[in-house]
Amino acid sequence: MEAVVSTPTPATGNADLVRVSDLRVRFVTKETTVYAVNGVDFSLAPGEVLGILGESGCGKTVTLRALIRLLPEDRAQVSGRVVVGDNDMLRLPKRELQSVRGGTIAMIFQEPMTALDPVYTVGYQIAETIIRHEGCSWREADVRALDLFEQVQVPSPKRRLNSYPHELSGGLRQRAMIALALSCRPSVLLADEPTTALDATVQIQILLLLRELQKELGMGVIFVTHDMGVAGEISDRLAIMYAGRLVETGPVTQVMRAPLHPYTAGLLSSTVHGSMRGQRLQAIEGAPPNLEKLPDACSFVPRCPHVRDACREGVPEPVQAAPERMARCIRVNPA
Amino acid sequence: MAEVATLRPGAEAEVPIGAIDARGYWSTVAYRLSQDPVTIAFGVVLILIFLAAILAPVLAPHDPYKANMTMRLAVIGTPSYMLGGDELGRDMLSRLLYGARVSLFMGLTPVFLALLIGGSLGVTAGFLGGKVNMGIMRVMDVFYAFPTVLLAIGLTGALGAGSRNLLIAITVILSPPIARVAESVTTQVRAFDFVEAARASGADTFTIIRVHVLSNVLGPILIYTTSLVSVSIIISAGLSFLGFGVTPPTADWGLMLATLRTTIWVNPYVAVLPGLMIFITSMCFNLLSDGMRNAMDMRF
Amino acid sequence: MTDGSSPGAAATAARQRIDPFLEVRGLKKYFPVKGGVLNRTIANVQAVDDVSFDVAKGETLGIVGESGCGKSTTARLLMRLIEPDSGTVHFDGRLIGADNGIPIREMRRQVQMVFQDSYSSLNARLPVEETVAFGPIVHGIPRPEARERARRLLYDVGLDASRFMKRYPHELSGGQRQRVNVARALALQPRILILDEAVSALDKSVEAQVLNLLLDLKQEYDLTYVFISHDLNVVQYVSDRVLVMYLGQVVEIGPVDEIYANPRHPYTRALLSSRPSMDPELRITEPPLSGDPPNPINPPSGCRFHTRCAFANEVCARASPVLSTFGDDTRHEIACHMLSPGSGHPDAPAPS
Fold first, then answer.
1. Domains in chain C, please, with CATH?
2. Quick one: which of A67, A94, A159, B110 is 20 to 30 A from A232 by CA?
3. In A, what residues contact B, Cβ < 8 A?
4. 8 Å CB contact of A287 and B10
5. Would you give the DSSP letter of residue A248?
6. Which pLDDT tens digit goes with each residue over A290-300?
7. Which residues of B touch A291 (CB under 8 A)?
C-alpha cells in the first residue's frame, strides 16, 4: 500500500528498472541492534537519475548496498523486496547474483581504492571483468577497455590502462572506477558519494561526466550524496532520507525550490551558499536520532520547528502532495 | 534551571549516538570483563593460586624442607601427606605451596621489570620517532637475533646461576618484544590530532606522554605483557630445571620437576604435579590476556 | 623588546599601531621525499613556497584551495607544529621564536587551533572536561580553577556542562565533539583561532550550527580567525578577506566581496565556477577546468597554474608571476602575467 503511494511515477508501472518496497535493514550485534533502514519504498525508471540525499547515518549508503546485496550477511538482517530488472535481488542465489552484479547493476564508491585492486593494472582489471562476464577473448576485452577509457575521458588512455591504481590521481582513479563499473553495460548504476572525496574542480568534472554517460547509455542511476548542491547538479528526482526513512521525494527542482518536509527545508537553509553573508544561518537544531531506539513517532520531532501533538502519535504515513511528490509529514495536505 | 534557559542554542537538544551514560574506558573494560564468565573463572583460579602462595605458611601442613625417610615417594592420598612425598620424603603439598611463591615471583618479577624497561623504551622510541627510534629499536632487534631460551641460558651461564641472575636474564629477553609492541602502538597514537592539539597547548613531551599517550597505549601493552607471564614462568621453570636458576633445596616448581624426573617411573602422579601447576598457571595468564583483549576491543 | 627610551621608540610605537596582528613573510616548507637504497632525499614536496600575508586584528582571513595546495601546512607552520624552512611570522609585532620576540610557548597560548577531525583531535580516554582543562593546567593554572574554566567554556559553546563534562568523546555526536574542540582551543584565552577545515567533516545541518557558534564566539571573545577550508561557500560566508592558494603559493588575495564578485586570477575564477549552482535549472554545462591539480612534488615551472590554464602562454611556463596589486584596489593582489604590464603575455596591458 505504502509502495504505491510513495512511488511518484506510477505511469511507468511495470517498466520500472528498480523497484524497492518496504526495505528494512537492521544490524544486530551482541550488544545492540541498529535500525538503519526502516521501510523504504521507491522506484527508478529507465534513464532516470534518482538522488538520495541525507546526512551521515541516515541509512542512504546502507540502502544502496542492500540493493546490490553488499551488506555483511552475518550482521545485517534485510527484509522487504528489491527488484532490479527481472531479478528479485534479495532472494537471488549467490551464483546468479554474481552475473547480475556488474552485468545489470554496478556500483561506484567514494573511495576508488576500495574498488580497485592495488596489485593489478587498471586495464587488466577492466579486461578481466569483461571476460568474466562476456567470455570474450583478451584481445577483444583490451579493445573494449580502451574504448571505455576514452569514454570516461581519460587523457592518453593507452598509457593509463597500464597504470596501477596508486599511480593515478584522484580524478583519474575515479574515472577508472567508472570505466570498470560500465565495463559490462549495466542498466543501473549505483553511485555512493563518488565525488565527495574530490577537489571542487575535479568534482564538477566527474559530475558532468556521469551526467553525459548516463544520457549516452540510457542508464538508470541512483546517486547517494550528503550535498544538496551535488544532488541538484545531477538528479532528475530527489529522495530525502532521515533516520532510515524517505521523508520526501519529488522532482529535483520542485523539492529544492519548495520543500514540503521541514527537514528538507532545514537542510536547504543550513546549506551555506553565496547570498547568505551577514545573515544568521537557519540551522536545524540538534543532531540525528539514535538508531538503536527509534521512537514510534516522527523521528524529526526533537529537531522540528513545527511540532504538534499529533507528530508524536506514530510514524507519519507518506502523503501524496502532488502527482509526483511525497512527504512523510502530517502538515502536508494530500493533493 | 536558569542556566539551561540561557544556554546557547544548538547542542542541548542533541541526542548522542551510542551510549548515553558517561562511562570511562577502564570502567567499560571492567564491565565487559565482568560479563565474560570464562575469563572470570580463570581469574578466580589465578587468585586462588596467589592466595595459596601468600598463605603458604598457614596452609602448609608440614615444613617443606623437612625430609622424612618413611614418606619417600609416598603416593597421593597418603594420610597427612595428601599429595604424597618427594624423593626425600618431603611433603609435596607443602612444597607446591611454597614453590608457588618462588615460581610466581620468578615468573612475574621479570615481566614487571621488562614492562617498565621495554615499555618506556618503546614508548620513547615511538613518540620521538626519527633517529631515537632507529637507535632504540635496532638495539632491540639485536636481541631478536637469538632464540629466546638459548639467549637466557647464555646470559645465566655468563652471569652465573642463582635466582637474581635468572631474573636479570629473563628481564633482558622479555624487554625487546614489549618494546616493539609499545613502539608500534605509540607510533599509531602519535598520529592522532589530539597529540598535535596538546603540543599546540604548550605542553612538553613528558606531559603529553603522561596524559595523552600512556592512557591510550597502556591497554594494548598490558594485554601483551600478560600473555608473556606464562612464557616467563615456563622459561624460569625451565632454567631452574636445567640448573641455571633457583638452586636446591629451594622449593620451585621447575626445580621440583627436575629432581622428581628420575622417579617418574616409580611414582608418575607425584612427579607430574609441579608440571601440572606450571601448566595451569600459565594457561590462566594466557586466557586472562585473551579475555582482556576481547574486553578492550572497542572502537574507542 | 625594542620599546623603551631609545630615540626610535616613538617610531616603533607608531609602526606597531599600524602593524598587522599576524604578519607572515616568505614562509616556506619543503618536505623531503626519501627513497632509494640509501634512503636519500630524491625529491621535495613543495608544500608551502614563499607565502606572505597579513591578518588584521579582529578580521577573519579565509584560506581556500584544493588538496595539496598547502593550506593545512600553512596552519601548522603558523602554530609552529612544524618548523618552517625559511620565512618569518610576527605576532602582534613580535617575531615568533626569536630571542627578542615572542617565545613559541607564549605564542601558542595566544594562537590556538581547531582541527578538522573531531574524533582524532580528542583523546578518547579523557572526559571532555579534562580535555578542555588540559591546556590551562599545563600553563600552571590550579586544577580546580582550570576545571571551573572548562565547565564555563563547555557551557559557552552550547554544551550543558553538568550533563556533558564527564562524558567521553565516543558518547558525543560529531557536532558536539567539534564544540568541545572549540572549547579546548578557547581554554587558553587565545586572541587568534586557526580553524583548519573545522566544519568540513560535519553534516550540513550541524555545520550551520557550528558556524553560527563560531561567529558568536568571535564577537564575545574578540577573536581573530584564520579560517581554512576547501568549501568556497563557507569561506565566503565567514571571511572578511580571502586568500586563494594553488600548489603551495598564493595566487590571489583580497576582500571577500571583491574576490567573489570580481575574481581576477584564472584559477580563482575556475574554482568559483566549479561550485554547484544550487539550482537544477541553472546547471553547470562545461567543467571550468580539466584534469587534477598537479603533484606538489616537482610542481610546474613558472606560474604553477599554467598546465591547467586556458590562457597560458610561453611566458607563463618560463617566469613566476609576482603577487601584486593592479588598478585602484590596493587590497586586492593577484599573481598573474595577464595583468602585469610588460610581462610578455599577449593579453597583458602595455607598460605605461
1. 19-125+168-334 (3.40.50.300)
2. A67
3. 57, 283, 285-292, 302-303
4. no
5. E
6. 888 888 899 99
7. 17
